Amino acid sequence: MNKRASQQTEGKKCPMCGQPGIKVIREDTIFGGVWVENVPFEYCQNCHERFCDLATAQQLEAIADNPAKFAKMIERPVAHVV
Ligand SMILES: [Zn+2]
Hints:
single chain; Ubiquitin-like (UB roll); alpha+beta; binds zinc ion; three-stranded antiparallel β-sheet; flat
């Protein structure tokens, strides 16, 4: 069994600063005007850049292209304090 196949972040270098130390995090983000929850990002602990891999980017694009298919509309009360 090759357990390392799914965890390739170990020793992976940051494309921005070239340092190792990439960590996978889950964050909410807004992409194409759609609020997307639990998106896996690779996060560089050195320069604090976030990246998403190709598969994730493609999923985000699919969601942004067709939000009615992937997203549910949530109505909630929003108030502003003036
Ligand atoms: Zn970096």
